[in-house]
Amino acid sequence: MSTGSSVMLGLLPLSSAERTMARHEVVEVELRRSEDGGGWEADDSVIIYNRVPKTASTSFTNIAYDLCSRNRFHVLHINTTKNNPVMSLQDQVRFVRNVTTWREMKPGFYHGHVAYLDFSKYGVKGKPMYINVVRDPIERLVSYYYFLRFGDDYRPGLRRRKQGDKKTFDECVSSGGSDCAPEKLWLQIPFFCGHHSECWNAGSRWALEQAKYNLVNEYLLVGVTEELEDFIMILEAVLPRFFKGATELYRSGKKSHLRKTTEKKPPTKETIAKLQQSDIWKIENEFYEFALEHFQFVRAHAVREKDGELYVLAQSFFYEKIYPKLS
């Protein structure tokens, strides 16, 4: 069926004049809804980016900081004690209450290394929109390993926890070190799984299935580090209230949009093969592949490539036979 033809079974296609009138009526309805304050993307919108460490989260968050004044929204960093991603029950209640009722901070973009929190459990009206980014689990661990020792180009003078340790990732894996153990791969699944105790049991298939469920049902969009620009482009199309101008800002590469871990040495094939023997890697990688496939599915229905460039698709649906007629 060609674009713009009738999608109502058993009805003849609308004429050009009828289609123009239908589109005009839709514009009138949407304009009146906007004037009534009923717009979907209203000024009380909240986004929570519960960012997984070493997935290009700082690069992406800095774009939000650059855009917040221009696009008139607030950015808030969720800083937890000792970077603990699990909140106490009382802090969960406080956080949900803050996000829900703090009107001065709406529209708001919250970000921090915290596990997913289901707002519907706390009896509040309205839920925030969750977004996130995932990365190949071994690449993420390697980046984090060297980050703890050498830092990155974002704050090069800051002393890191493992500074002075010159052991390479390959040497760590070969010697069975704790910083590169398969258990350290277990991070992306619990971040998406949430605050249930089973989420943090490394290798739990229940946690994997819960993480998959949350990704599909509770997150507006989950991108991948390797295709971050596409993730940003889709967000700009879906949520221009927050992300208008984000794609160009990312492409320009200004400020700290491209944060890189220093002194990072790629692992050998032998090191990778050893980690891939672990059941923990297999489950974490299954989640990553699931997230990647879903993102590529979303992208395939949102953008098109032309002459090596990606373009966001224009609206491809409209309404017909709108009654009663507006006066």
TrEMBL record:
Signal sequence, renumbered to the chain: 1-17
Keywords from the UniProt entry: Coiled coil, Disulfide bond, Glycoprotein, Golgi apparatus, Membrane, Signal, Signal-anchor, Transferase, Transmembrane, Transmembrane helix
Membrane topology: Single-pass type II membrane protein
GO CC field: Golgi membrane
Localization terms from the record: Golgi apparatus membrane
A Pfam family assignment: Sulfotransfer_2
Family: Belongs to the sulfotransferase 3 family.
Name under which the protein is recorded: Heparan sulfate 2-O-sulfotransferase 1
Organism annotation: Poecilia mexicana
